[in-house]
Amino acid sequence: MVALFFSTMASAQEYRKETLFMPKGTSGAGIQISYLDLGSTDSDIMLVLKELNATGTYMSVAPFYTYTYKDNRCIGARLKYTKGTGDISKADLSLFSDDLSLSVEDIAASTRSTQMQVFQRSYLGLDTHGRFGLFNDLTLSYGSTRNSFSLNQESLDAYSLTKKVKLGVSPGIMIFILNNVSTHVAMSIGGVSYTHTDNIKGGEVIGKRDFTKAHFAPDVTDITMGITIYL
Questions:
Q1: d(Cα 118, Cα 71) in Å, to the nearest integer?
Q2: Distance of alpha carbon 85 from alpha carbon 160, whole angstroms
Q3: Can you give the residue range of the structural domain that contains 191?
Q4: Does 22 map to a domain?
Q5: Cα–Cα distance between 178 and 19 in angstroms, integer?
Q6: End-to-end C-alpha distance for the chain, whole angstroms
Q7: Which residue in 207, 194, 80, 85 sits closest to 147, CA to CA?
Q8: What pLDDT, in 10s, does the model give residues 145-160?
Q9: d(CA 26, CA 28)
Q10: Most CB contacts within 10 A, which of 14, 34, 84, 92?
Q11: What are the pLDDT digits (tens) for 169-182?
Q12: Is the CB of residue 121 less than 8 Å from the CB of residue 139?
């Protein structure tokens, strides 16, 4: 019985050693980016939007730092900057009748946001050499976003300011391309958030909105790639 116990403990320690991906005391710094380019030409959406011509881009840059406080467990911080633009050159809105239709042209929108994020990451090694691994980020973020619009290339005297707190989940995969350099890809699968929005026109707040949201589903618009250098 005693021999069996020590044999089991030895096997568990050997398994733990084989699956060790990120050892305690490791620190790293890197950058995480995402980019999305969307476009639509002469598209119809649900028989409501006709001849939709629209384009949009979305990009984010997030430098970060991590410290492994326990084998396969680390904490980190990110500063994320996001910029997005969208243009609608033409769209016809038809509510199932020619008498209820609306045509819009030359509408542009832009969004800029800054977020501070802290996260806890858990790793799972996939090979005995510690080259391939899975991870999951549990991220708490706070950010500010400004959305503005223009019509016929003239800026509208109105915009919105949004403050948002979110607890999100983002799994991913990591590969060591060198002994001290890794690359990774992650995708958000949702979370819980609280948002406060002020609508401003002429320098005055003309409307407010507060709402809480809980949503868990893969988000293909929030896929990020990153590279990390370990110190």
A1: 19
A2: 15
A3: 27-36+57-88+111-230
A4: no
A5: 18
A6: 45
A7: 85
A8: 998 877 776 667 778 8
A9: 7
A10: 34
A11: 999 999 999 999 99
A12: no
